[in-house]
Amino acid sequence: MVKSLTTFSLPNRSELRRSLPNRSELRRSVLLRIAVIIFSASSSAYGETLALSQKDVALLILRESNQAKEIDLAAKSTKLAWTQAQATFDYTFAAEAGHELSKFENFGSNISNKDETLKSQISLSKPFSTGTLLGLQYTRTSLRQDLIAGSSSSLPPSQQTQDIFGLSFEQNLLKNSFGAANRADLKAAEHSYTASSLVRANQLQDLVLTGLRAFWNAYVTQETFQEAVNSRARYQQLVQSIKKKSSYGYTGPGELAQAQAELEFREENVKVASTVYLRALDELANLLKYSAETDVKFIVSDETPFPPAGAKTEITQLRGVQSQKLKVEATRELETAAKSRKLADLSLVAKLYQTGLEETPDSAYSEMASATHPKYYLGLKFQYSFGSGIQAEDYENKKLNRQLEESKLERQLADLKSKENDLQRRINENYSQVISSKTQNSYREKAVQELTKSYNQGRTDIAVLIEALNKYFNSEIQHTRAVGDYQITLNEWAAFRDELIPSN
User: Fold this and answer.
1) Closest Cα to residue 488, out of 297, 217, 188?
2) By residue range, what is the domain housing residue 31?
3) Of 44, 111, 136, 306, which sits 20 to 30 A from 82 (CA to CA)?
4) Model's pTM, two decimal places?
5) Is 142 domain-assigned?
6) Is residue 298 part of a domain?
7) How many Cβ atoms from other residues are within 10 Å of residue 439's Cβ?
């Protein structure tokens, strides 16, 4: 009869550490205490007990592990490149105010021995994704002069204010033609940022898969340790039985020595298994960040799920492939930007100014606002850098990067297809091993029961019974390992299909 859920209790960690086997004369008594702890002591009597299922492992590793935090922090840091690309289109505001006192002499003029100037200026500029730069500027200059006494009445007033308002327009025509390079940079940064979020999800999924492997490894080592203790106890009973038979003269030559040799081997097995078991528990505790002294209870279902059946995986829709596609698109955009920047810088420039010059600030502002004194400018600006060939080399570099990412994508698709087929084969193979090992174990258990009865009746040699016992113990371990391998393969399949954890 199949049980729906079975709970396996681990021995108390602190007690188990104190009871590790050693090579002293008291080794056997210490190992006996370990067996008593496993099968009769309540783990809650020694401290906290942590119940762990596969779901618990996934939640703990995502919430508590240092590795998950590092993955999250690394993913968040990638946002900077995207923000830097967006900063290309930031507004720029500037303001300046100052006071100037001058006693310079001017050529051909000696009408003033001191000039005092107050100047203030504000400007606002904004680049656009069309390769257009718009600018606004307002300047006020107030001049006060100390004129030389007796000068001609035709001299300008001693105090004047000039207001100037300017509007500028600049449009890229060749280099970054109509914003092609800037838009490509922005798209590349956006693709890279989106790809990093998909990489983060896959890294977290791989981390959860690592945690689940540690979970099943700890479970298997626990069962292996318990089986080692069980086999030792079975041989202790056999040795006692042979000693009892020997006292009545019913044993053959070497029977007791063979059983004692096997018992000694099982004693060493317990020591090795306990060390491996503790190491597996330490690795799991370190990964999930719970106290190494916490007692753990594994929650594992007795039922063996059937191999998953369904439609083929859409390889091109997997997160890893989508991420690599975005990387390819990002390198293509960067190649486009580099190609545009190879060209000469030719821009159309247009400027419009309005000015007002009067003795008082209010009059100067009114005159400027009336637009009676405009100034217009229209022209072309040309600039070209040459000598090092950096622009051409940058373009070649971006093209090579694009080819590299495209090659990675092509190889990734082929590898994933091969991995899908391999996982399907491994799932079926491991499932078959679970069923087969369970069947073998039941047969070997029956064989041990029959041979034990036959040996007690004196009809079977001790060597035959020992061989049957060893094969039975090994089949128990083999079945546990087959279950662990099968469950790990199922988790690998879920991770392959991006079903282990969601993208968000």
Assistant:
1) 217
2) 6-77+189-324+405-496
3) 136
4) 0.79
5) no
6) yes
7) 12
